[in-house]
Amino acid sequence: MRRAALLATCVWLVAGAAAAEGLDWEVTENPGASAPVLAARNVRDGVLELGDAYFDGGTALFGSFALLASQLCMGASDVLGLVDDNPVTQHVTKGILSKNVAKIALLWHDAGAESLLGSHGLETEHWARGKVAALNPLLSEEDVNEIEGPLPLDPLAFVGEAMIHTDAYQPAAPFVDIGAALVVDVGMRPAASVLRLFQQRATADAVDARAKSFWSRAIEWGW
What we know:
Elements: H1 2-21, H2 35-84, H3 96-117, H4 123-134, H5 141-148, H6 156-159, H7 173-197, H8 201-222
């Protein structure tokens, strides 16, 4: 119970720090504006969010294929490691090929993870929460990892001492993310945009929040 309360407090503090930091495209608007102004905002946001869904969907697809490329490179690295990094050859070749392919796998993984977590409204939370949590002396490493989420994986999952780096393989993960992107960016978010165009802002906000939650849970479930 105490651990849950501590985590909740830290997440609240992180959210506050992230909100205070702000992002380049965030704009503060008067919520008490007149009805015509609010109606114009709904039309504007409905159009802009259609474009945002398109770009976020593209980013998600790139991230998914980058993760798939990472897994393929990791597989190649482990196969090469059987030749140049087994108990006999490691004293001669020192895993020169397998270790460098593993580094490429790590780079693809990092690019994919940042693409998935840097979209669909998760940007502020992802970029700020890890730093704040890591600086909190009351949190254990396990607690920090829980706040940071499943991605990106620790670099040792790719380059740590092992013959087969099993932690780097989640074969279904990229396909889960592709499916989630189709549901969110082809279905839910365009529907929310249409609702905004028809001045149903509260319902559109609810659909957007559900889409963000679905995306976040899909990433966690895939990994």
